[in-house]
Fold this sequence. Notes:
Layout: H1 6-12, H2 22-47, H3 53-78, H4 80-101
Amino acid sequence: MQHPAPFDLNLARLDPDHLADLPTIIEARITTLKPTGTEHEAHTRVIARCLTMAESLTTRRRLVRLQADANWHEQLLRQLSELIKNGKTRRSWHDSMARSTGR
Length: 103
């Protein structure tokens, strides 16, 4: 069984005190993913003639995963204002529940 990625766990349980940090964090992740994918693709082109079919498929899979991850983060960035608004609403709800229960 595969374990969730730390980023996914953090996204699922946003820290309301750090919602303003999300744009910077996500942009940094995109900035890392895109060049990594580009570098991997360029390197694969250089070594392609030396790869077996299985190795070629494996390197292609890694490239597809990097590209998909970058695309997903770009979608996340486009939805960020909604995500932050939802996180703030959730915090307000939790705060009101805590006050009503005396916690």
